[in-house]
């Protein structure tokens, strides 16, 4: 296990370096000037060149890249051009809201999906099953930002029971979490329904039935336990889509998380901040994958990793 984790960490480090390099190149190749984005067009040529020199944009691209790598190795992600603060401080400031948003979204999505997946399996072939499958298909095809706007119009504007924007208090997290979870629920519902049907054909289920154990007990106590590992796997795979969706949803709801910060950085062409967020998110993905592998061994101690 130790050798496996070391190997995964080395692969993860290489992946982060690739992501960092690609982000650096893409941000410097796309059209636009961060100095003009920061100061506007009313700037003398002398002041313009002086600011570029201060930021380091007049250095050759290779030197800029080496300086950035050197900063990361010394524990610095740089300073935000717009907000004049260390990138690390800004990420730490905005990160808790994103963690709350993702955690609450997962709570809604997983609990709802298990309930609907079980109902769909138990009523397979009936009108209830068809309705559930129809709505999973519809909701998966809808963009989450559009769902977010509809939720704001209905619950905030019409009913006035939830705040439309902001990130203060528990109520402010409900609408963005629901909007974000709606894209994940269809994937999980279909997966759970399929895996329940697959496990229900196993011999141990037939043995439980022969002993007169009720169907609900078999499903909730035994079958769901057996689909935990593949369910954790698909959830970890969907976290990428979840975080990508969070960038848009946080902007729609003015919810001040990492996604909101990233959109602002992209708009302002704040190179250090945007690069820092990209590196941080890449580290999160890699850490989640490694932690998922470790979690498997706690769920099922029989799992062993090749050396």
Can you offer a commentary on this structure?
There is one protein chain. The chain contains 13 helices and no strands. By secondary structure, it is an all-alpha fold. The protein has a domain at 87-299: MetI-like fold, CATH 1.10.3720.10. The radius of gyration is 24 Å and the shape is globular. The mean pLDDT is 80.
Write the layout of secondary structure elements.
Blueprint: H1 2-29, H2 34-39, H3 45-55, H4 61-73, H5 87-122, H6 127-141, H7 144-158, H8 171-199, H9 203-210, H10 215-226, H11 228-252, H12 258-268, H13 271-299
Low-confidence blocks of residues:
none
Overall mean pLDDT:
80
Derived structural class: mainly alpha
The first-to-last residue Cα distance is 7 Å
Helix content: over 70%
Query: How many strands?
Result: 0
CATH class wording of the domain at 87-299:
Mainly Alpha
Reported by name, the CATH topology of the domain at 87-299 is MetI-like fold
Gyration radius, in Å: 24 Å
* CATH architectural arrangement of the domain at 87-299: Orthogonal Bundle
Q: Provide a count of the helices.
A: 13
Elements, N to C (H/E): HHHHHHHHHHHHH
Q: What summary fits the major beta sheet?
A: none
Molecular shape: globular
Strand content: under 5%
| CATH homologous superfamily caption of the domain at 87-299 | MetI-like
């Amino acid at each position: 296990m130790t050798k496996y984790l070391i190997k995964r960490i080395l692969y993860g480090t290489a992946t982060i370096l690739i992501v960092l390099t690609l982000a650096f190149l893409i941000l410097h190749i796309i059209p636009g000037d961060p100095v003009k984005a920061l100061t506007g067009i009313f700037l003398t040529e002398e002041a313009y060149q002086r600011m570029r020199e201060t930021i380091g944009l007049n250095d050759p691209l290779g030197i800029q890249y080496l300086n950035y790598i050197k900063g990361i190795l010394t524990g610095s992600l740089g300073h935000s051009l717009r907000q004049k603060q260390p990138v690390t401080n800004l990420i730490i400031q905005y990160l808790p809201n994103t963690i709350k948003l993702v955690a609450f979204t997962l709570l809604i999505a997983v609990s709802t999906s298990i309930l609907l997946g079980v109902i769909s399996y138990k009523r397979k072939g009936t009108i209830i099953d068809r309705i559930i499958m129809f709505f999973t298909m519809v909701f998966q095809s809808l963009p989450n930002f559009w769902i977010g706007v509809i939720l704001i119009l209905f619950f905030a504007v019409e009913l006035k029971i939830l705040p439309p924007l902001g990130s203060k208090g528990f109520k402010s997290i409900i609408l963005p979490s629901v909007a974000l979870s709606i894209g994940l629920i269809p994937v999980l519902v279909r997966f759970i329904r399929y895996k329940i049907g697959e496990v229900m054909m196993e011999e141990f289920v037939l043995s439980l039935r022969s002993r007169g154990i009720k169907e609900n007990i078999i499903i909730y106590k035994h079958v769901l336990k057996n689909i935990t590992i593949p369910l954790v796997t698909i959830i970890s795979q969907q976290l990428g889509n979840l975080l990508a969706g969070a960038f848009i949803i946080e902007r729609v709801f003015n919810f001040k998380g990492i996604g909101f910060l990233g959109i602002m950085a992209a708009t302002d062409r704040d190179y250090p901040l945007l690069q820092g967020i990209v590196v941080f998110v890449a580290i999160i993905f890699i850490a989640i994958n490694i932690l998922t592998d470790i979690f498997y061994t706690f769920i099922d101690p029989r799992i062993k990793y090749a050396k």
